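Researcher: Structure for this, please.
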Amino acid sequence: MPSIHYQYTVDGEDFTMAGEASSALKQTLKLMNLDADIIRRCAIAMYEGEINMVIHANGGVIDVDIFPDKIVMVLTDHGPGIPDVALAMQEGYSTASEEVLNLGFGAGMGLPNMKRSSDEMNIDTTIGVGTTVTMTIYIRNV
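Model: Predicted structure, token format:
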């Protein structure tokens, strides 16, 4: 049973709100006096996921469970799915539109940054149905 559960809704195609969920989680983790590195990694992983949901999936839902020993973030969308996960994991690979690129997003670093910031990451995707990304960051006593 998680100690704390939060759920955030990510509005699709609204770049002005992208980052709100990761900012809220960051503030919560600060109030919990967690290690700064854990907070930073959670914020980066979740922000990148939020941006991906806005760019590629018309939004979605993020569930965060904070356990005594780990933080689990589950990002679920009903977007088009990821046709080639291995390709999407390559730094610099992007399917973002020209419009999104002109806004300064879509550099192809989202999934690689999510993986780099997480201790564990799993991608479950089905074409035409959506994608669920589960990221776990372990809380280690410093």
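Researcher: Any notable elements?
Model: The helical segments are 20-31, 36-56, 85-88, 98-102, 110-117. Residues 36-56 form the longest helix (21 residues).
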